[in-house]
Amino acid sequence: MFSNRILFVVATIVFLLLLIPVFALYVGITLFPSLGTTSYSFWTFITMPSTATLVENTLEFSIVSAIFTTVFATTYAWFIARTDVYGKRFLELLPVLGLSVPLLFKAFAWSFLLNPHAGIINTTLRGILGRGAPVLDINTMAGLIFVMSFTNVPIVYLVILPAMKSMDSTLEEASRIAGKSILATFRDVTFPLARPAVLSAFLLAVIGGVGNFEYPFILGIPGNIHVLATEVYFWAQQRVPPAYGTAGEISILYSIIALVGVTAYIWSTRRSFKYQVVTGRSVSKNVQKLGRFRYLALLICFGILFFEFILPFATLFLMSTTTIYGSEFSSIKLNFPSSYITAFQIPSLFRSLETSFLFGTIAAVLATVVGTLLAYSALKTKSRGGRLAEYISAIPLAFPGVVYGVALFWTFLLVPGLNLIYGTIWPLVIALVFIRLPFSTRIVSGNLVQVSDELEEASQVAGAGFFRTFARVITPLIKNGLFNSLVYTFVDSLRELGGVIILTTAQTTTFTVLLLQYYNTSALFSSIDTVAAASVVFTGIIAVLMVVASVVRRYWGSKWER
């Protein structure tokens, strides 16, 4: 069919966008292993003791934090979907607020709080208990795991919540009638039913930890904790001269590790379909009564939200309005609005904002269009290419942002003619479309899977072609998924650091890269309030955009229904 050929072409183009940079990366480290004055081979590199330490740190950081993240997110989703916790309608929406704070800014906030020398909490403890006060050091592996455990709660929660909500409560009611407690019912009934979704969410959290760059860079390096992401950046950007050969070798090893996690993730998501039950009767939606434990459940939910969003953002706001960092209580002064005035005077601030919004918009549109076509190919076509499209859409998860940035750099270096677009926004757009494609595909798939094939068949019988059917039948029915994909991809593009930091130039510096550069090059105590103020402003912009998007989606949906 004509439609199958179109979808095959789209899948092929996406596959080439993956294959060409990876091939260029391999060719680069093979033909130019000494570029940047390094000369050892890939096999020599992976047998070095320091490499084993990098891999160990990366896996410990990602796996242990993913375990805690899954526990927190599963607990939160269970309270919201299966119990009568106080304020559940309000609590259901709050975790998404954490997505408005870029990970770089959260890393700043945790450093401001728990820096062993001048952090707010440590300074306070020394003021109360004297010099013998315990030191809470965030620049340790335990500190990294702690902050990462709460960071991925929103995305893991959003994966688990639908599975929790769709359960029939009859089995839980039977368990309670049999005399089992709420916790025993959760252990023996609720969790086994949600296990496939929980496993998929856990693997997604592991992949997110493996690819995380911001926390290890801001919090790990001061404590001499290095992971694969920071090592790639060091050899490609911070070393003088840059050693792109070594950066490429680390990237290859990095991708292999991530690919193992992605393969397990794809396997888990495919197996989860075996647990689906399609029934023609309505299901019971009764929730379990917590009784006197409702307040405890509310406290637990608030505690998760506190560390996930409230504390980091409150720290940034406090830092931007006072001189509390590194100061005794008696010497704290109000620093508002001078810090915000100084923030708006950061060189190239407005140009970086313009660049971020421009490439974020383009990347969101392209990722949504391509993701929609891949989702349609995977779910609605009968050819073998459908499964190929499914795998292609998931493969980008195996390439952390900083790795794909290095691969694209090698591509522009080796492929004739491509150097003409280097220094423009297009390398950033390509990187972001590729990195965000798996999420766009899955967001759209959630709506597309509910559309019956009969509607398309009726349109085709009436004489409509593929494009007309897609535009007039499919698109209106999946409009919520398309809108959610646009919003999520746009917001996440604004927050991205690892995927663009290798590719940015003086003409295409994004806001997150600009603020990181300002944080690294300025005198710490003289610029810390300015960094915090700029972080608050940018977070506020993202939060306002998310609120506006939510209002537009509600108005659009109600207008469409009328």
Profile the largest sheet: none
Instruction: Return the string of H and E elements.
Output: HHHHHHHHHHHHHHHHHHHHHHHH
Structural class designation: mainly alpha
Q: Give the uncertain stretches in residue-range form.
A: 273-282
Helical region count?
A: 24
Shape: globular
Provide the gyration radius in Å: 25 Å
Please estimate the helix content.
over 70%
Distance between the termini: 36 Å
Number of DSSP-assigned strands: 0
Strand content: under 5%
Structural description of this entry:
By secondary structure, this protein is an all-alpha fold. It is 72% helix and 0% strand. Helix 1 (2-31) packs antiparallel against helix 13, helix 8 (153-165) crosses helix 10 (182-211) and helix 10 (182-211) runs antiparallel to helix 13 (244-272). The longest helix has 38 residues, at 524-561.
Summarize the structure.
The protein has 562 residues and is mostly helical. Helices cover 72% and strands 0% of the residues.
Spell out the key features of this protein.
single chain, 562 residues, mainly alpha
Secondary-structure blueprint:
Blueprint: H1 2-31, H2 42-46, H3 49-82, H4 88-93, H5 103-114, H6 120-129, H7 141-151, H8 153-165, H9 170-177, H10 182-211, H11 214-220, H12 228-238, H13 244-272, H14 294-321, H15 338-343, H16 349-380, H17 385-394, H18 401-414, H19 426-448, H20 453-461, H21 466-477, H22 479-495, H23 511-521, H24 524-561
Helix pairs in contact: 1-13, 1-16, 1-17, 1-18, 3-7, 3-8, 3-10, 3-14, 5-11, 5-14, 7-11, 8-10, 9-10, 10-13, 12-13, 13-18, 14-24, 16-17, 16-19, 16-22, 18-19, 19-22, 20-21, 22-24, 23-24
